[in-house]
Design a protein that fits this description.
The complex is a heterodimer. Chain A is mainly alpha-helical. Chain A has 16 helices and no strands. Chain B is globular and about 75 Å long. Chain B folds into 2 domains: about 60 residues, no CATH class; about 230 residues, MetI-like fold (Orthogonal Bundle). Classes of the chains: A mainly alpha, B mainly alpha.
Chain lengths: ~325, ~300
């Protein structure tokens, strides 16, 4: 009885104590508060704004008093052929991009790691990391120039004796390759950084022992380097697969034109067009929300699969 | 030098022929890869210096001229865009570092009341966002559309950067702060007088990444700014490119001539826009690489 009473009385005390301590460290708390304000305004209010997807919003009403329409917007998505076209383009471009960008950095990192002459290694790294720091607007402008009818691409082909004068940017059938390979060009070098860091932590005595046993370079790479990198490789695989529905809005906005649009429109640019240029806010929000949910599901599924393959260890 | 001489002795096995072949092929592949990156960029830079009638070329034109650059720099709107770009990069980096480091310092204190709640709020912001449309409506209702501050305020807070700074602050020995506290300094004073001067490397790395992002960011302008006087360089370049693309597609259907910026001026604008990055990057590369490591350790 008595103990119960004491516990009962303690509870509010605990809370009061907590508040007292909070006030006591008001200086530290006053440092956190601006951060909380920023998070609430710029992150949590937009997350609340996702309820728009279940409403019918027009510019004249406010977000709060727009009428609920339940899943009406999502039903419209199913029969929207422009949406499905953008999904097709997104997945097509992402698939090419993700396959190459998954394997190429691993190979490049191994090759860079095996370079013996340090100054050469440094120069190679400096050059291959550089495109990562250029914006898509700059790269887009350069791509359009290279691929124009008398641009570098055709000049090189002409020099090789193949006479072509196509403007590749106006050919929709080539767009998926242009979009994915230009992304590979930009990011492949930068993608080696994490692998190189992991490799530099491998115990060099492994290689010395293998060398003594007469293992060739390729054998050493296959039996030491790659097994040592399993964790980081599977982490990258998970992130790659879950990025299947991600699309690059910067890239699309600069490379898309009226000729290649049927092949260039991706989910993001479709949301942008429907939402911000046509003003259909609710529908565009529903499209964005639907695609994010699918991405989260993909992330969870791939994590589960790699967990199984990785002796039940999650890399996430 | 002594170490280098000693090395071959300690290596017990001589290089096999296969290994030497591997090394040669490796150098050839990496040289080709570097050329694939650098030559197309060279093509753009040198084309911007080509005179109008310099004919077809890949790596060196018949005639060089500064005409494109003279036209670019005689355009007032370019100077205006450059001013906006520089201003938004400087102000953006400064305020971003200020907010993130102050919040990170408080969160790095293990006895901070409510720390668990604050941290889980932060983690939510790393994985979930409202997306394009709800964010646009928020920016609109805050009255930030078509203001300079739309470049600065929404990107001031980043929990990702806060986590990196927090880990850095934790490694600073407590004894330094304690002695200051005994002398009567409060938390704010300790932060500005002791912690900040010690955190230059971490601040430099995060500042650099945010600076590159600010300089390169065009989406903010595209989404929220319609007033051309507030366009940064990237947005101006985007306008030039899209206009000339529109002209190219129009010319395909009918013989329409749309007045556009000449190709040469376009290329010179590209070079001007990427110049700060091309010039600064080789010197700052090591900060970028270590910065990526800092982020990865946390993952």
């Amino acid at each position: 009885m008595l103990e119960e009473q004491i516990q009962h009385e303690r509870r509010p005390n605990k809370f009061v104590n907590w508040c007292r301590e909070w006030i006591h460290q008001w200086q530290l708390q006053s440092m956190v508060i601006p951060g909380i304000i920023f998070m609430v305004i710029f992150n949590f209010i937009p997350i609340y704004g996702l309820t728009l997807a279940f409403k019918s919003y027009s510019v004249t009403s406010t977000m709060a008093d727009a009428p609920w329409v339940q899943f009406q917007n999502f039903k419209t998505i199913i029969s929207d052929k422009y949406f499905w076209q953008s999904v097709q383009n997104t997945v097509g471009i992402s698939a090419i991009k993700l396959i190459i960008e998954f394997f190429l950095p691993i190979i490049l990192a191994i090759l860079i790691f095996e370079l013996k002459w340090t100054p050469f290694k440094k120069v190679v790294q400096t050059i291959t990391y550089l495109p990562h720091f250029l914006s898509w607007i700059i790269l887009g402008g350069m791509l359009i120039t290279w691929l124009s009818s008398n641009g570098m691409m055709n000049q090189v082909l002409n020099a090789l004796g193949i006479s072509v004068h196509t403007n590749y940017m106006l050919d929709g059938n080539k767009y998926w390759w242009i979009a994915s390979l230009s992304d590979v060009w930009k990011e492949a070098g930068w993608g080696t950084i994490l692998y190189l860091a992991t490799m530099s932590k491998i115990d060099p005595t492994y290689y010395e022992a293998a060398e003594m046993d007469g293992a060739s370079k390729l054998r050493q790479i296959w039996s030491i380097t790659i097994p040592e990198m399993t964790n980081i490789i599977s982490l990258n695989l998970i992130l790659s697969v879950s990025g299947l529905f991600n699309s690059n809005l910067d890239q699309t906005l600069v490379l898309m034109n009226s000729q290649n649009q049927p092949k260039a429109e991706v989910i993001n640019s479709y949301v942008y067009r429907v939402g911000l240029t046509q003003g259909d806010f609710s529908y565009a929000t529903a499209v964005g929300l639907g695609v994010s949910i699918i991405s989260v599901i993909l992330l969870i599924v791939t994590n589960q699969i790699t967990k199984k393959l990785n002796d039940n260890q999650s890399v996430l | 030098m002594d170490v280098k001489v000693a090395k071959p002795v300690s290596r017990k096995v001589k290089k096999t022929k296969g290994d030497r072949v591997f090394d040669v092929i490796n150098v050839v592949i990496m040289t080709l890869f570097s050329l694939i990156i650098i030559l197309p960029m060279w093509n753009i830079v040198i084309s911007s210096f080509a005179a109008k009638n310099s004919g077809n070329f890949i790596f060196w034109p018949n005639k060089l001229s500064m005409a494109n650059y003279i036209r670019v720099f005689s355009d007032n709107s370019l100077w205006n865009a450059m001013f906006i770009s520089v201003a938004k990069t400087l102000v953006g980096v400064l305020l971003h570092l200020m907010l993130c480091s102050i919040v990170a310092y408080a969160l790095s204190k293990r006895n901070l009341r409510g720390r668990g709640l604050y941290a889980s709020m932060g983690i939510i912001t790393m994985f979930f966002s409202g997306g394009m449309i709800p964010t646009y409506l928020l920016i609109k209702s805050l009255g930030l559309l078509n203001t300079f501050w739309v470049y600065i305020i929404p990107s001031m807070f980043s929990y990702y950067d806060i986590v990196i700074l927090m880990n850095f602050f934790r490694d600073i020995p407590d004894s330094l702060e304690e002695s200051a506290k005994i002398d009567g300094a409060n938390d704010w004073l300790v932060f500005f007088k002791i912690i900040l001067p010690l955190s230059k490397p971490a601040m430099a790395t995060i500042g650099l990444f945010h600076g590159v992002w600010q300089w390169n960011d065009f989406m903010t302008a595209k989404l929220y700014v319609t007033n051309e006087a507030l366009y940064p360089l990237q947005m101006r370049l985007y306008d030039i490119i899209v206009q000339s693309q529109a002209a190219a597609t129009a010319g395909l259907n009918a013989q329409v001539t749309i007045a556009t910026t000449s190709k040469g001026v376009q290329l010179a604008t590209i070079v001007v826009t990427m110049l700060p990055i091309l010039v600064l990057y080789p010197f700052l590369q090591k900060y970028f690489v270590t910065g990526t490591m800092l982020g990865a350790v946390k993952e």
